[in-house]
Structure formats: C-alpha cells, structure tokens
Amino acid sequence: MKKYPTALRDLNLSLYSPMAYIFMVVFVGLLLFFFYRGFFVVGEASMRFLFSLLPWFFIILVPALTMKSFAEEKKTGTIEILLTYPESSAEIVFEKFLAYFVLLIIALIFTFFVPVTLMFIGSPDLGEIVSGYIGAILLGGAYVSIGIFASSLTRNQVISFILGVIFSFVLFFLGSPIFTIGLSDSLASFLSYLSLSAHYEAMVRGVIDTRDVIYYLSVIFIFLYATYYRVETRR
Fold first, then answer.
1. Which long-range contacts (CB under 8 A, 24 or more apart) does 208-213 make?
2. Contact 3, 92 (CB under 8 A)
3. Do residues 104 and 65 lie in contact, with contact meaning Cβ atoms separated by under 8 Å?
4. HEC string of the chain?
5. CA 17 to chain centre
6. In angstroms, what is the C-alpha Rg of the chain?
7. pLDDT tens across 14-60, in order?
8. What's the pLDDT score for residue 3?
9. How far apart are CA 31 and CA 73, in angstroms?
10. HSE value, Cβ hemisphere, 13 Å, CA-based, for 89
11. Which residues of 64-97 are buried (b: 16+ CB within 10 A; e: fewer)?
12. Contact predicate 126/108, CB 8 Å
C-alpha cells in the first residue's frame, strides 16, 4: 500500500485543478495588492499590515478551497470507494487535511518576496516576520481543519462553504465586542481566550508563546476529530 494515497490524490487534484490556480492568484494577488497599497501610504518596513490582512483572506478563501473535500465525495458517491481503502478513518481525515494544508503553505511561500523586498529598502524586524509566518501557518491550519469539518457535514459544496465561513468568522471574532457586549468580564475574557484572533495577534507582534501554539494545535485536533467522528459514523 502506498503511503498517504489520499493525501497525494487530493493534492494532485488540487494542484492540477482550476480551483488551485484561482486560489493562488486571488489569494496572493489581492493580498499583495492591499498590502502594497497600505505600505506606500504608511511608509513603514513592516509585515504587520500583511499579517493583519491574512485572517480576512483565510476566512473566505480557505472554506472555498476545502468545501469539496468531503462534500464532493458524498455527492459523486466516491466516498463509498474511499471508505474501502485499507486506511483508517483517522488516516483519511488527516491525509485530506495534509493535502489542503500543504497547498495553503505553498500560497504563503509566494509572499516571501515581500520580506525580501523590505530587507532591501529598510530594516524590518526578522523575529517579528518569522513569528508572524508561524502564526499565519497555525491559523491557516486551524481554518483548513474547520473547512474540512464543514465539508463533512453536507454533500452540497455551497452549504459547506457557507458553514466554513460562519465557523471561521465566529471563532476568530469570538472575543470581540459583537459577542462579548453585555457579558461579565470573566466570561468575556474566557471567550477572548477561545478566539483565534487573540493568539494570532500575539504572534504578529513577535511573541511566540507555547500556550498559543498548543491552542492552535488543540483547535486543529478538535475539528479533525469531529470530522473523523463523522467519517467513522458513516463507515
């Protein structure tokens, strides 16, 4: 048996499909457009503005990328074939996650020429850049796991996309006033800790805390486990 056949299959389908190129062009193109537009206004050799834009792009584009992961399998009936593979449900879920996660990292790699450019025209904080990219990768991984879970809930890709956007939006802004208004300070603080944004913003500022890393790994694990439960129940 080949190692990670599901991951390789999904990655191949993604890389050789129009959706992959659309994702790359839209993600990188719009992200850099808005970054450089703000960069020339502020005139500061910093990546913070780019990292502040990433969550908004992730909220929309990652669910669009992952919406077909399980929904299309169900719609076309290939989910039944997939479940006959000599792999456990946990392996199938993880391999799908790995395929889309790798694609997301490739998209982030295309933005590397931004810090290279900043090094030529200024003196950016390299520690802050590295920390920001680590935060972006972890945040992206969390959104991929959320998107895959949303796709496992339905056979309709549009519904999968909508659910992915809603879940991603709520989890990122859980600690914002739109959710905490009228709540006690302790409950508001608890919701803020549960939000994706609080842990991401710390990394964007150049602070890498093991608690933030553990938080993101926990979020990824929870949504992948929820997806595994869905797949295992069907199996």
1. 208/131, 208/134, 212/135, 212/138, 213/138
2. no
3. yes
4. CCCCHHHHHHHHHHHCCHHHHHHHHHHHHHHHHHHHHHHHHHCCCCCHHHHHHHHHHHHHHHHHHHCCCCHHHHHHCHHHHHCCCCCCHHHHHHHHHHHHHHHHHHHHHCCCHHHHHHHHHCCCCHHHHHHHHHHHHHHHHHHHHHHHHHHHCCCCHHHHHHHHHHHHHHHHCCCCHHHHCCCCHHHHHHHHHHCHHHHHHHHHCCCCCHHHHHHHHHHHHHHHHHHHHHHHHHC
5. 19
6. 19
7. 655 676 777 778 877 887 777 777 666 555 556 777 888 899 989 99
8. 45
9. 31
10. 16
11. bbbbbbbbbbbeeeebeebeeeebebebbbbbbb
12. no
| Mean pLDDT in residue range 72-80 | 76
Report CA-CA distances (Å) from 108 to 27, 115, 148, 154, 211: 9, 12, 19, 29, 24
Tally Cβ neighbours within 10 Å of residue 15.
Answer: 14
Single-letter code of the amino acid located at 224: L
Mean pLDDT in residue range 122-151: 90
Gap between the Cα atoms of 219 and 142, Å rounded: 6
Taking a C-beta distance cutoff of 8 angstroms, is the pair 24, 105 a contact?
Answer: no
Q: Where are the domains of the chain?
A: 5-234
Name the residue among 158, 20, 155, 11 with its Cα closest to residue 80: 155
CA–CA distances in Å: residue 133 to residues 47, 50, 108, 138: 10, 10, 8, 9
